[in-house]
UniProtKB/TrEMBL annotation:
Taxonomic classification: Eukaryota, Sar, Alveolata, Dinophyceae, Gonyaulacales
Name of this chain's protein: K Homology domain-containing protein
Gene3D superfamilies xref list: 3.30.310.210
Protein origin, superkingdom: Eukaryota
GO molecular function annotation: RNA binding
């Protein structure tokens, strides 16, 4: 009962925030305190209260561990001491063989690194492994399938190993959760960024974990010549997005490193795949837009991953996503040649708005000065908005 107010927060704000994060509903089922009649009838005041969590299993477990973390912060070692003495006791009889919980003890002095700034490292481990990860004292508690638990434990172990020296992963050839990228040794520092900021940004953007293997200038080791392997852990789509972003950065720093090994590629394969289209520098600049805004709109509207490695346009996704992205890119580049026609007949991914007005300024009002109004709408809604003529030559707005 000492932590009830801490758990709920001011006016229940913390409870509501956790509910939104995990998609659950929480309430104290039998609240009773000193000089308060228990909800279930008369009885002695209790020193503990029951918090009921309703929702799907994953959401319930995530919210439960979040609340346990809050209580552990208020009442030191309330849960971690029990884990140290009895081990994890998360209802083992109520879950099937594929879902459960495991723990990993972390040295007290490196707990800040395991957590990361504002819990960033913990969230990164969750995103990359698909496992629920939370800390109770100096114990990492991991809930999910056996595969997810194993991945989370391995990722955390390797991440902590970087504090003491190089990381070496022995089963790269047999793992299905890793992508290996060869990075020139002399630009490893550029790819990592100051205090690992660049890598962390890519990790947060894509929900992956990235580690350099071997000795590459850290912990007093000399800068390695030749190639250093960068390991990207996570789901297939997230890994590919992060890989292409890293390739883009490498090509910027060492021109020709990636593009010399790449060639245009089209694919009709079912499932996730990558296609590559050769563009000119002018086309790349136009497709990127100011601060990459146009590229982001194409990606959001099509659902595909699109990035430019030098002058090579890489498009990754499912067949429908890749097809949409290629269409949108083709229409966009057509504007460079004065081709402003989009034939939307038979398409299910477009909404057409015809602006009818007695003067020619109506469309300008809709798009705003230099198209800023339309760009803002596209950015907020995750769409690509463009003014173009239809097959009959009539101008309209396509979303």
């Amino acid at each position: 009962d000492l932590s009830v107010g801490f758990v709920t927060g001011a006016n229940g704000a913390h409870l509501r925030r956790v509910e939104e994060e995990w998609g659950v509903i929480m309430m104290f089922a039998e609240y009773s305190g000193r000089d308060v009649t228990p909800a279930a009838g008369s009885g002695q005041p209790r020193r503990t209260e029951t918090l009921a969590i309703f929702g799907p299993r994953r959401g319930r477990r995530g919210a439960q561990l979040t609340m346990m973390n809050v209580i552990e912060g208020k009442v030191t070692r309330y849960f971690s001491a029990k884990i140290r003495q009895f081990g994890e006791t998360y209802h083992p009889d109520n879950v099937d063989d594929s879902w459960g919980t495991s723990t990993l003890e972390v040295r007290e002095e490196i707990m800040p690194y395991a957590l990361g700034k504002n819990g960033g490292t913990r969230r990164k481990l969750m995103a990359a492994s698909g496992c629920i990860v939370q800390y109770l004292g100096n114990f990492a508690v991991m809930s999910g399938t056996k595969v997810e638990q194993t991945h989370a434990s391995e990722y955390l172990t390797w991440l902590l190993q970087t504090l003491d020296g190089p990381v070496h992963v022995t089963d790269l050839d047999t793992r299905g959760d890793v992508t290996v990228v060869d990075v020139p040794g002399r630009i490893v520092g550029f790819i990592k960024g100051s205090r690992r900021e660049s890598l962390s940004r890519h990790e947060e953007d894509w929900g992956v974990l990235m580690l350099f293997v071997g000795e590459h200038g850290q912990h007093g080791f000399p800068q390695q010549e030749g190639v250093v392997q960068l390991l990207i852990f996570g789901g297939e789509r997230a890994r590919k997005g992060a890989e292409i972003d890293i390739m883009c950065a490498m090509e910027f720093k060492q021109k020709g490193w990636c593009t010399s090994r790449m060639s245009p590629r089209l694919s009709d394969r079912d499932g996730f795949d990558v296609e590559r289209i050769q563009l000119t520098e002018v086309e790349v600049s136009y497709s990127l837009g100011m601060k990459g805004e146009t590229r982001k709109k194409l990606a959001a509207a099509s659902g595909a991953i699109i990035q430019f490695v030098g002058t090579m346009c890489c498009i990754a996704g499912e067949p429908v996503e890749r097809g949409r992205c290629k269409d949108y890119l083709g229409w966009l580049l057509g504007r460079l040649k004065g081709q402003c026609t989009i034939d939307a007949r038979g398409r299910t991914d477009v909404t057409e708005i015809r602006v009818a007005a007695p003067n020619s300024k109506a469309m300008g009002v809709v798009t705003g000065k230099k198209g800023h109004t339309l760009q803002g709408v596209a950015r907020e809604t995750g769409t690509w908005c463009v003014v173009a003529k239809d097959h009959a030559g009539h101008e309209r707005l396509c979303i």
